[in-house]
Write a structure and sequence with these properties.
288 residues; 2 domains; OB fold (Dihydrolipoamide Acetyltransferase, E2P); three-stranded antiparallel β-sheet; alpha/beta
């Protein structure tokens, strides 16, 4: 088995929560936060009040060691059971999927390519997913993601958990290399476990959380650049107007915003065939 898990149980029964880090090997904040919490539980500094928590700090070990997103294919597009796995990540998915199905709730921790505040994906409005989103401490909740991928066979940790009848949330903790991203991941784990009563204490509701509906997915179809080529020019959550230029291909074709909204998760180093960026619309500014 390539992945390594750490399981902790309280004497009192209760919910089971799964914490995932480094689904993408260059997104290490969740791994570091999980390792910190594991050490605190093992030392006795933190105690489980009820239920159980399972940590998989590094879900993609080879990509993590190479500090790259994936080895063969994007692991967070193949999270399902594969009868004849052809790629390294499909073999990992066969290990991870049944663990997701065995837990009441999954928290999947990521980071993003560009600068920007933390946010969470609420793909499926399960009551516990909504409840966790309300106390995570992130500034933005993104909805509508499955609708953008309904014409694909992509399978994520969120979609697989939903199909298994489980709840889940994915948190993007900030830019890959920002030290604060580890703190965001740590707080997200801690608040999630408090929400379920696994850790003692009360997770406080997040105030003034923005809700954004993701609506448009743009896949890079050829060589080109975002904005003027600098990552600061096109940032996550930057407002854009309808028909505003966002990217330009080397052949001169311009990619414009389809409507007034905000840029989501721009990927300056995207390869042809990768998601380049998304456009969403701000729904509200209130607590989840």
């Amino acid at each position: 088995m390539d992945i390594k898990s750490f399981e902790f149980y309280a004497e009192k029964p209760g919910p089971s929560v799964l914490i995932l880090g480094a689904i993408h090997g260059n997104e290490k904040c969740g791994s570091k936060a999980a390792e910190n919490l594991i050490a605190e539980i093992e030392s006795g500094k933190l105690k489980l009040e009820c239920g159980s928590v399972t940590f998989i700090p590094i879900c993609n070990p080879k990509a993590y060691a190479a500090n790259q997103r994936y080895i063969d294919v994007n692991l967070n597009r193949v999270i399902k059971r594969h009868d004849n796995p052809a790629h390294y990540e499909e073999k990992l998915a066969n290990q991870i999927a049944p663990i997701i199905a065995a837990h009441d709730f999954t928290l999947d921790l990521h980071s993003i390519h560009s600068k920007g505040s933390s946010f969470a994906f609420l793909d499926f409005p399960h009551k516990d997913a909504k409840g966790v989103c309300a106390v995570l401490g992130v500034e933005t909740i993104i909805t509508g993601w499955p609708d953008m991928y309904e014409d694909t066979d992509d399978a994520t940790t969120l979609s697989f958990a939903h199909e298994a009848g489980r709840a889940s949330v994915t948190v993007e903790c900030g830019q890959h290399d920002e030290p604060e991203a580890v703190n965001v991941a740590y707080e997200a784990i801690s608040n999630t476990l408090k929400y379920f009563g696994i850790f003692a204490g009360q997770a406080q509701p997040t105030q003034h959380c923005r809700v954004v509906q993701a609506k448009h997915r743009v896949v890079k179809e050829g060589e080109g650049i975002l904005g003027d080529g600098t990552i600061n020019n096109i940032q996550h959550m930057r407002a854009v107007k309808k028909d505003e230029k966002i990217a330009e291909y080397n052949n001169g074709n311009i990619v414009k915003s389809p409507e007034d909204g905000v840029i989501l998760i721009p990927f300056k180093e995207a390869q042809i065939g990768d998601e380049w960026f998304y456009v969403g619309t701000l729904q509200t500014e209130k607590s989840v």
